[in-house]
């Protein structure tokens, strides 16, 4: 396994500090199960998509994407090298990916239907659907930037920064024009204010060309209903450097 990024120490928790020797790697076949788990976090439980096929696509993209795992040294010591702490990549939702990968075609169709079901529907809903379908020659790609929920944004910071260079290095027929961001939030009882699972997404929202919110209610293990608000945003690719700078400066 060849390292793709330099290793770093990450600390988590207000009272208890956990030192992790983490390192970025290009996604490989051994990461498939970990990537599937990250996709389960990203997408609503109602999606009913073949996540294994999407994971295979992410792994197949040699020029883009990073998984963060234990460094080689720590993985050998703990026998846990296959744990994927975060994944950063893109799933192209335009040709030729749509024709070549039926699972991606299903993903795009799901996103179109999912966004269209947002309540209340507004002009942004239509804008997002138009971008998803490429109505005006847009080339959308879904951002996959998931991490263990209790880990800070800094864990994937280098991966996200690297994504900018990776996009620029893609062949022209694979370069997206717009990024679809799908992120989760909850609302406090009696409040309409969104609390983002990934706090940095509040800053990303400021740069969005269009935004929709879709509530998904599912039963928990305690048979109590849990409502999660999925926020879908459209981002112009040229805005990405400013967004990354904004997030980085906010976390320091």
Which CATH architecture?
A: 3-Layer(aba) Sandwich
Instruction: Summarize the main sheet.
Output: 9 strands, mixed
Beta fraction: 25-35%
* Shape summary: globular
Explain what the structure shows.
By secondary structure, the chain is an alpha+beta fold. The chain has one domain (8-251): Aminopeptidase, CATH 3.40.630. The chain is 35% helix and 25% strand. The chain has helices spanning 32-42, 51-60, 72-78, 97-100, 102-116, 123-133, 157-168, 201-205, 240-251; strands at residues 8-10, 20-25, 66-70, 86-92, 140-147, 178-187, 194-196, 210-219, 225-236. Strands 1, 2, 3, 4, 5, 6, 7, 8 and 9 form a 9-stranded mixed beta sheet that branches. A hairpin with a 5-residue loop joins strand 8 (210-219) and strand 9. The longest helix has 15 residues, at 102-116. It is globular, with a radius of gyration of 18 Å. 32% of the residues are buried.
């Amino acid at each position: 396994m060849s390292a793709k990024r330099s290793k770093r120490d990450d600390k988590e928790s207000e009272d208890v500090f956990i030192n992790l020797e983490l390192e970025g790697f290009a996604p490989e076949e051994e990461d498939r199960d970990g990537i599937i788990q990250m996709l389960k976090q990203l997408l609503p439980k109602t999606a009913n998509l073949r996540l294994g096929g999407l994971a295979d696509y992410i792994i197949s993209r040699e020029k883009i994407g990073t998984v963060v795992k234990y460094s080689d040294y720590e993985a050998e010591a703990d026998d846990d090298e296959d744990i994927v702490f975060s994944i950063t990549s893109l799933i192209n939702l335009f040709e030729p990916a749509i024709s070549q990968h039926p699972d991606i075609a299903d993903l795009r169709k799901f996103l179109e239907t999912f966004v269209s079901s947002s309540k209340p529907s507004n002009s942004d809903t239509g804008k997002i659907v138009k971008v998803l379908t490429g109505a005006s020659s847009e080339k959308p790609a879904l951002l996959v930037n998931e991490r263990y929920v209790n880990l800070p944004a800094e864990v994937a910071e280098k991966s996200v920064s690297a994504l900018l260079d990776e996009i620029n290095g893609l062949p022209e027929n694979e370069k997206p024009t717009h990024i679809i961001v799908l992120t989760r939030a909850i609302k406090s009882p009696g409040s309409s204010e969104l609390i983002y699972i990934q706090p940095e997404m509040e800053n990303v929202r400021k740069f969005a060309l269009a935004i929709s919110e879709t509530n998904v209610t599912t039963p928990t293990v305690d048979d109590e209903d849990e409502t999660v608000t999925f926020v879908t945003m459209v981002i112009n690719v040229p805005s990405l450097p400013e967004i990354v700078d904004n997030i980085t400066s906010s976390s320091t």
